[in-house]
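Shipment paperwork, digital attachment
Item: protein structure file
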Amino acid sequence: MAVGANQPFKGVDSQAIACTGAPANAALPGSGESVLIYNAGTVVAFVLFGGNAASVSEPQTYGLAIPPGGSRLLGVSKFDNFIGAAFAADGTGTGTLYVSRGSGTVY
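Attachment content:
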């Protein structure tokens, strides 16, 4: 593949993560260097990746915001095995994130 070439995202495995205002974490499904996250909630979600559950315990403080109804394709390292997730709407938001792991740079 040429430098700078784009490859379509090819999902390997997916899972839903139910979230509340309190942080939750889960093992990332499948394998690959990319993670596609879709926020099916009605409030902003925050996500954070790490090598173990303890390293992803504060997504609302250090994480990336995913808007309601939005999705993001993110690169992860081979050491990122967990995702931390939380929804925030004055700490009371709830919803579901759909997480798909695979390979590729665009979707």
